[in-house]
Design goal:
The chain is an alpha+beta fold. The chain has twelve helices and 27 strands. A hairpin with a 4-residue loop joins strand 4 and strand 5.
Length: about 500
C-alpha cells in the first residue's frame, strides 16, 4: 500500500484546501495519474498516484484543510489495476475512431506553470459549423491568463465541452472532422483573398473576427461595425486600440445610429456575467489583505520640476543610447530602493510571530490590463541602472498585456509601486499586496500654485500615498520613508551622490 501525501506547498505557504478528487474509492489508477487538486492562496497543485493499483482510501474530503505531509489517502497495489488495463486497451480503438476517420481532437493546451484548470469561454462556432485551419474557436480563461484555442485542421466542428465548463490541460473539448462540406467550403474564401490586394491601405477584419470582452464593449457603446475595423492584433484579431481609433471615423454616422433608441424595452435592464478567474482571484486577495493587515495610509506631495527637467534634457539621448524611453518609473524605483535600504521594516513581512527582513529588493509594478490588475515583479531592482529598470518594466508590461506572464514573474515581490496617475488619479489609498508591508501610490502631475521662498509659483506637483502595515511599520518610519522619497525626487543629485 502506498500513501498519497500532501507535497511541499511553496515558500511561506503553510496549508492548502482540497479542491476536488478526480477518482473515488475503488477506482483503478495508474502511477503519476492526477488524483486530487489542492488550492493555496497562491497556486493550485496536483497530487498524483504514487503507484499503479486501486484507490483504497480517501482521508481528506473536498474542502478540507491540509498541511504538507498529511496523508490524503492510499493506493493499494494489486491486480485490479492490471485487470483494468485490457478494458482500457479495448476502449482505445473506440476513442481513436474519430481520428481514423479523418477527425482531429481539439485539446486544452498547457496553461502555464502551476495552473491546473481553466474555464471555457464562449465558443465562436457551434457544432456542425465548417472551420478553417488555425481559425480561433474559443478562449479558455484561467485565474492568470486567457489561452486561445484554434482549429487544428479544416473541417466540421464537434463541441464536447460547453461554455463555462471547467477543463484541465490535455482534456479533449471537441474535434474537427474532415468532410465533403468542409472540402467544398474551403475554396469559398479565395475570391475575398484575391480581392484583398486591391485595398492595401489597411487590413480589414473579417465579419466573423473574434472580439474580446473589452473590444466588444467599445464596439457596442459606439455603434461600430466590426467588419469595417482595421485589425492589428495577433492572428488578425481586433484590439481595443483598433476600436477606439475607429470611434472618430464613425462619429459622423452617430445621428443616424441614434434614431433607433425605441427598442430599449426589448433589452434586459440588467445583465449577469460570471466573473473571470482572474477577477475572482483579485477580489479574494484584496479582501484577504484588508482582513489581515492593519492598513494605514500616509500622504505627501513632491515637486516634480527637477525630475521633469532632467528627463526633458536627456530623454532623446537616453533613448538613442539604450533603446528605451526614459520615464518617471525608473526615478521612483531608484528612490524607493534607497528608502527601503534606510527603513528596512517597509521591506519586511510578518510570518506568524516572526518578522522576516528582506535583504533583496524585488519591486512589484502594478499593471492594468483588459482582464484586470496584475503585479509582475522586477527582480533585484537595487542592482539595475535607470535603463535596466525601464527595460525591465517595459518587458513586464508587454507580457502582462499579452497574457504571457509566468507564475514566477508574479511572486516574491518585497514592495509594490502602483501608478494611478496614468489614468488621471489625483489621490488614492492603495491596498497592500500581501504579505508585503508597503505599497507606494503615484498620482497625476498637476500644475498648482506653491509658496516658494515667500513667492507664489506654479509648479508640477504630485501627491504620493504610502499604505503600510501598522503591525510592523510605525508611523514615524512610514513618514520618514515617504519624506525620503520626496527628497530624492525633488533633488535627483542626492541619489547620485548617495546623500
Amino acid at each position: 500500500m502506498a500513501d498519497i501525501l500532501t507535497p511541499a506547498l511553496g515558500e511561506s505557504v503553510a496549508e492548502a484546501s482540497i479542491a476536488k478528487w478526480t477518482k473515488k474509492v475503488g477506482d483503478a489508477v495508474k502511477k503519476d495519474e492526477v488524483l486530487v487538486e489542492l488550492e493555496t492562496d497562491k497556486v493550485s497543485l496536483e497530487v498524483v498516484a504514487p503507484a499503479d493499483g486501486v484507490l483504497s482510501a480517501i482521508n481528506a474530503n473536498d474542502g478540507d484543510t491540509v498541511v504538507p505531509g498529511t496523508v490524503l489517502g492510499a493506493v493499494t497495489e494489486g491486480g485490479a489495476a492490471a485487470a483494468s488495463a485490457p478494458a482500457a486497451a479495448a476502449a482505445a480503438p473506440v476513442a481513436a475512431a474519430p481520428a481514423a476517420s479523418g477527425g482531429v481532437d481539439i485539446a486544452v493546451p498547457t496553461m502555464g506553470e502551476s495552473v491546473a484548470e481553466g474555464s471555457i469561454g464562449t465558443w465562436l462556432k457551434k457544432s456542425g459549423d465548417t472551420v478553417a485551419k488555425d481559425e480561433l474557436l474559443v478562449e479558455i480563461e484561467t485565474d492568470k491568463v486567457a489561452v486561445e484555442v484554434s482549429a487544428p485542421a479544416a473541417g466540421v466542428l464537434t463541441i464536447a465541452a460547453a461554455d463555462g465548463a471547467t477543463v484541465t490541460p490535455g482534456q479533449v473539448i471537441g474535434s474537427v472532422a474532415a468532410s465533403g462540406a468542409a472540402a467544398a467550403a474551403a475554396p469559398a474564401p479565395a475570391p475575398a483573398a484575391a480581392a484583398a490586394p486591391a485595398n492595401t491601405g489597411s487590413a480589414q477584419a473579417p465579419a466573423s473576427a473574434h472580439l474580446s470582452p473589452a473590444v466588444q464593449r467599445v464596439v457596442s457603446e459606439n455603434n461600430l461595425n466590426p467588419a469595417s475595423l482595421s485589425a492589428s492584433g495577433p492572428k488578425g484579431n481586433i484590439t481595443k486600440a483598433d476600436a477606439i481609433a475607429a470611434i472618430g471615423a464613425a462619429t459622423p454616422a452617430a445621428p443616424k445610429a441614434a434614431a433607433p433608441a425605441a427598442p430599449r424595452a426589448d433589452q434586459p435592464r440588467e445583465e449577469r456575467v460570471k466573473m473571470t478567474r482572474l477577477r475572482q482571484t483579485i477580489a479574494r486577495r484584496l479582501k484577504e489583505s484588508q482582513n489581515t493587515a492593519a492598513q494605514l495610509t500616509t500622504f505627501n506631495e513632491v515637486d516634480m520640476t527637477n525630475v521633469m527637467a532632467l528627463r526633458a534634457q536627456y530623454k532623446e539621448v537616453f533613448e538613442k543610447r539604450h533603446g528605451v524611453k526614459l520615464g518617471f518609473m525608473s526615478f521612483f524605483t531608484k528612490a524607493v530602493v534607497q528608502a527601503l535600504h534606510e527603513i528596512p521594516a517597509v521591506n519586511a513581512e510578518i510570518d506568524g510571530t516572526d518578522i522576516i527582513y528582506k535583504n533583496h529588493y524585488d519591486i512589484g509594478i502594478a499593471v492594468g490590463t483588459d482582464k484586470g490588475l496584475v503585479v509582475p515583479v522586477l527582480r533585484d531592482a537595487d542592482a539595475l541602472s535607470l535603463a535596466g529598470i525601464e527595460k525591465g518594466i517595459a518587458a513586464l508590461g508587454k507580457a502582462a498585456r499579452d497574457g504571457a506572464l509566468t507564475m514566477d514573474q508574479m511572486q516574491g515581490g518585497t514592495f509594490t509601486i502602483t501608478n494611478g496617475g496614468t489614468y488621471g488619479s489625483l489621490m488614492s489609498t492603495p491596498i497592500l499586496n500581501t504579505p508585503q508591508s508597503g505599497i507606494l501610490g503615484m498620482h497625476n502631475i498637476v500644475q498648482r500654485p506653491m509658496a516658494i521662498n515667500g513667492e507664489v509659483k506654479i509648479r508640477p506637483m504630485m501627491y504620493l500615498a504610502l499604505s503600510y502595515d501598522h503591525r510592523i511599520v510605525d508611523g514615524k518610519e512610514a513618514v520618514t520613508f515617504l519624506v525620503r522619497i520626496k527628497e530624492l525626487l525633488e533633488d535627483p543629485a542626492r541619489a547620485l551622490l548617495d546623500l
